[in-house]
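Reviewer 2 asked us to include a model.

Predict the structure of this chain.
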Amino acid sequence: MLKRQGTPKINVKGEDWYDPTKPEGSLIYKNADDLYYTVKKQNKRTGEAYEITKARTQKSTNMMETDDAYTLLSDPRHPNPMEVVYADYANSMKALANRARLEMISTGKIEYDKNAKDIYKNEVRSLEDKLDNALLNKPKEREAIRLTNAEVGRKIKDAEDAGEKLSKKDIKKLNQQALTKYRQE
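Predicted model (structure tokens):
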């Protein structure tokens, strides 16, 4: 794949970059300005120097580069049924992405309401406080889970040593009790 540069543009009728060979809403990429470069080589037998012009490339997938997934079938005359299912799905996803891009362009800007900031400041502050609290409690939660797993593991091992087998229901109950205990601690 030839090297690209910049942000891709959306293929829309009436724009300078519109490409009628591609579906509306698909992405149009610009090739890099410094696409070609020369490499000096030397013939090992004759010692003669010469130049080769090469193109800069980048990695890509065949699915990303095609507009129709059916072009990627291994045998178009006798396709594998799973390939057809996958091609249908891929084409529907590509069409969905194209429609979403066109919708994004037609939506325009969303109005900013200065009064909304004052009206909802208490709700925003409450949500931010809850998020901060959750982030602060993350290490404590990990510690509670670690201690719970250790305790439940010991109880399961003790039960097996005593010749008993705990049911999934009992293990779940032990897990919940221990987690509640360590969260409170």
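The chain has a mean pLDDT of 93. Helices lie at 62-65, 81-107, 114-119, 121-161, 168-184. We have added this to the supplementary material.
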